[in-house]
Amino acid sequence: MRPPRKPGADRPRGAAPPAWEVVGRELLHDCRVFRVARATVLSPHTRASHPFFTIDADAWVNVVATTARGELVMVRQWRHGAGKVTLEIPGGLVDPGESPETAAARELLEETGFAAPSVRRLGDVNPNPALFGNRVYTFLAENCERVGEIQNGALEETWVELVPERDLPARLRAGEIDHALVIAALHWWRLDRER
After folding, report:
1. How far apart are alpha carbons 159 and 149 in whole angstroms?
2. 48, 102, 117, 191: most buried, per Cβ within 10 A?
3. Strand 145-146 to strand 71-79: parallel, antiparallel, or no bridges (unpaired)?
4. Residue 177: left (phi > 0), alpha (psi -120 to 50), or beta?
5. Which residues touch 168 (CB under 8 Å, ≥6 apart)?
6. Residues 162, 171: Cα–Cα separation, whole Å
């Protein structure tokens, strides 16, 4: 008796499944910072239609900001989804007509009062390809200095915390920093430092 075949064992290495065809799209709800949509999609195998729901959002940025003293400029803020105060790096939405680089410098200044001589892109990821189509761009801002006050709007309150770089691994392992996109940004930063 032959052993059972592994799924995909008869497919060439590196081959990809066929794309599904989107035949309709309907906006269900605009939630200001994102939109919920229903796509009608045809299976590439059966040609049957199926509904899929997506979250459409504008691009986001994250900023790994460091000082000349070897500290990360981080923020504590209340997060409604988690229902608690979190420790994160600065970040936010890219405004219409704004480049991700400009948004990164703006978010750093608004959320922390810190600025850097320049920001440099480290990489970008999709936040969750099952639901989202947007990108999250990570930037590095080195030699940051405090140049002004925090500029929070009415719906946001951030408190700055300077975290020594040497403390970061322990804080990650302890789960004190648990935002997946922040951890991805810190990974980009680590990779950049290993070059």
Report:
1. 11
2. 102
3. unpaired
4. beta
5. 72, 177, 186
6. 13
Residue 191: its pLDDT value, please?
94
Task: Kindly tell me if the per-residue pLDDT of 5 is higher than 70.
Answer: no
pLDDT score of 13:
82
Q: Beta 60-65 vs 136-141: how paired, if at all?
A: parallel
Catalytic positions, written as ranges = 156
Domains and CATH numbers, the chain: 21-56 (no CATH), 60-193 (3.90.79.10)
- Average pLDDT value for the chain: 94
pLDDT value for 6: 59
Q: What is the pLDDT of residues 18-30, one digit of tens each?
A: 999 999 999 999 9
